[in-house]
Structures are given as structure tokens and as C-alpha cells.
UniProtKB/TrEMBL annotation:
It comes from the Bacteria. PANTHER family: SUGAR-1-PHOSPHATE GUANYL TRANSFERASE. Keywords: CBS domain. Pfam families: CBS (PF00571), NTP_transferase (PF00483). This is Nucleotidyltransferase family protein. SMART domains: CBS. The keyword RNA-binding does not apply. Residues 1-59, 67-122 form the CBS domain.
Length: 352
């Protein structure tokens, strides 16, 4: 299927933010950078933007700073099967199609092939009390609060299911019967659901020690049950596997503006001044990929948080990577966040 390429096109001096919006809106992981004559100047991918964030570029900088200036292209009349073979050989997700020296189409691998399915387990942490969301959570587990017309937990499962994941484990503690009664064994959603129950809270990593011994010996994706996101879980898993990581943590860029002028000094001498500077950090997004060896390190009923578990691995030389999120992400921890999610949900197309 040749995509209407103009839907994902932008000019070289448009911002990285513009490219990001195009990639997220059309879910193609690619944007085409073209000039006023429709000549291809470069291609920007999901990975290019993530690398830009890691290299401290801002979303307001121009897209020509991060684009691939020499992308792989093909002629417009190239047969579909030949395009598929080329994309597989080059490990790329899309090929711009050229006719008479100008862009005339875009072939994507995702829509050219059938849906892939993954045996990798998915663990969703759904046992929290949600105390900051009271009174909404007085009689309802936080992941069962409806965002739009569906519980948050259902939206999370559907996002994974659309990407081809079918094996789910849900960690429960607070009002577990509501979750079990609603989802059952998962067959209504065409997935498999197994429940693991924490008799007492074990921290964000403790549920790993309760997983059954017969889970697939594959990297596991785990996610906090109070996160609403459109993260590309396929790309997340690919990133983890391609880099042979022992663990991967999703991170989100967070900006904080200091409300005062900052003075840098040497002794009692003023060296420089900066008025209300903005500091940028990567913060934990509550989504992880962990390899089987990490899971095996958590014993039954061990109380441990994920940051502590991963830091322990880092201290002994383990390979723990971060995966920057630029897709929609919201931690629904407070009433303001919950209200924002209600406002966002229709625009995001996640309420269907």
C-alpha cells in the first residue's frame, strides 16, 4: 500500500516537534523532509528523534539537524515484494518512492506484512491504592477508573494487544475481585490473562518474584497500571533486543524552570549570571523491559522497587539502557491528571 506521502511531509526548517507530531499522528515512525519542489532532502525516524533527545537537542530545533540525508529510496513502480525484501534487508520500516526525481509515494513495511505476534509476557502492576485519587478510588481500584468509556487497565491491554502481545500477567492487591470479574481470563479481548496477588504491597519490582516458573524465557515488558500512553511497545522491545540489554527503562524528558536568576561564582567573585534558566532531566516513565535473568533475581515476597532493582544491576556492571518516550504519556496519579486524561482521550483516538 502506497501511503499518501504528503501526510507525513515537512520542510527542512520545520521543527523536530513538527516531525514528532507527524510521526505520532500517522503511526508510521517516519516523516519525509522535502523542499518546495517535492524533492526528498531526508528522512526522520522515531529513532532519530530519540537519539536527538539523548544528545540534548530540543524539540524546537530544526529537523534538518537530525534527519538522515541519504535515505534508501526506490522508484515508484517497484514491485511490492521487491520493496518488502529491500526493507527487510536494510532493516528499515518505510521507503520513499521516487518518480521523475520527486517524491511520489511511501511504502511501509508494517502494512505490507501481516501482524506479528509476540510470546513475550507483559506484566501490569495494578495493585495500588490510589490514595491521591480519592474519593474516586474509595470503592474502585485506580486502574479500573474509566478514561473515556473504558477502564484505564483495559486501554493498556488493548494497546499491547494491537501490537501483537497476548500473554498478560496482572499484579493485584487492592480490590482484586473487581479486576478479575471484569477481565476474567482475557478471552473477551482475545488475550491470555493470569493474575498474581500481593498479600501485602511488594513495591514496583516485587511482583516479579511472584511470576510462575513456566513463563516464556523471553524479555518481559512491565508497566505501572496508572500510566496512559501510546508508546510503541514493538519498537521498545526491538530496542531492548537489538542492544542486548539486561534491562531497559522508558524515560520522559522533564523541564523545570528555576524562577530566579542563577549566579555562578568563584569565591566571592561573580563569574556568570543566567536569568531563570530551564533545566532538563530524564525521569522514570514507569515502563520497563527486563530480561529473564533480572526476573530470577527477585525472590518470592521480596519487597523491592524497580529503580533499586535496576540500580543493583548497574552497580555490578549490568547493561541497563534508557528509551526516551516522545509519544503521549500521562501518569494518572492525581485528580488533575485524571481530568486531563478525560480531556485528552478523544483527541488521541484511544477511546474507540
Amino acid at each position: 500500500m502506497k501511503k499518501h506521502w504528503k501526510d507525513v511531509a515537512l520542510a527542512p526548517k520545520q521543527s523536530i516537534r513538527d516531525a514528532l507530531e507527524i510521526i505520532n499522528l500517522h503511526a508510521l515512525q517516519v516523516a519525509l523532509v522535502v523542499d518546495e519542489n517535492d524533492q526528498l532532502k531526508g528522512v526522520v525516524t522515531d529513532g532519530d528523534i530519540r537519539r536527538a533527545l539523548l544528545n540534548n537537542l530540543t524539540l524546537d530545533q530544526t529537523v534538518d539537524l537530525v534527519m538522515n540525508h541519504n535515505p534508501i529510496t526506490a522508484q515508484f513502480d517497484t514491485p511490492k515484494q521487491k520493496l518488502i525484501r529491500l526493507m527487510e534487508q536494510k532493516s528499515i520500516l518505510a521507503i520513499p518512492l521516487i518518480k521523475d526525481g520527486r517524491v511520489a509515494g511511501l511504502q511501509t513495511l508494517k502494512q505490507a506484512l501481516n501482524q506479528s505476534y509476540y510470546d513475550n509476557p507483559v506484566l501490569i502492576m495494578a495493585g495500588g491504592f490510589g490514595t491521591r485519587l480519592r474519593p474516586l478510588t474509595d470503592n474502585c481500584p485506580k486502574p479500573m477508573l474509566k478514561v473515556g468509556n473504558k477502564p484505564l487497565l483495559e486501554m493498556t491491554i488493548l494497546n499491547f494487544a494491537k501490537a501483537g502481545f497476548v500473554n498478560f500477567y496482572i499484579s493485584t492487591h487492592f480490590m482484586p475481585e473487581q479486576i478479575k470479574d471484569y477481565f476474567g481470563d482475557g478471552s473477551r479481548l482475545n488475550v491470555n490473562i493470569t493474575y498474581i496477588h500481593e498479600d501485602s504491597p511488594l513495591g514496583t519490582g516485587g511482583a516479579l518474584g511472584l511470576l510462575p516458573n513456566d513463563i516464556p524465557d523471553l524479555p518481559l515488558i512491565m508497566m505501572n497500571g496508572d500510566v496512559l500512553t501510546k508508546v510503541d511497545v514493538q519498537r521498545l522491545l526491538e530496542f531492548h533486543n537489538e542492544n542486548q540489554a539486561q534491562a531497559t527503562m522508558c524515560v520522559r524528558e522533564y523541564e523545570y524552570q528555576i524562577p530566579y536568576g542563577v549566579i555562578n561564582g568563584k569565591g566571592n567573585e561573580v563569574v556568570s549570571m543566567e536569568e531563570k534558566p530551564t533545566q532538563r532531566f530524564f525521569v522514570n516513565a514507569g515502563i520497563y523491559v527486563v530480561s529473564p535473568e533480572i526476573i530470577k533475581q527477585v525472590s518470592v515476597n521480596q519487597v523491592i522497587d524497580m529503580p533499586t532493582l535496576l540500580d543493583n544491576k548497574i552497580q555490578v556492571g549490568g547493561k541497563v539502557l534508557m528509551f526516551p518516550l516522545h509519544e503521549y504519556w500521562l501518569d494518572i496519579g492525581r485528580l488533575d491528571d485524571f481530568n486531563r486524561a478525560q480531556a485528552d482521550i478523544c483527541a488521541l483516538g484511544m477511546s474507540e
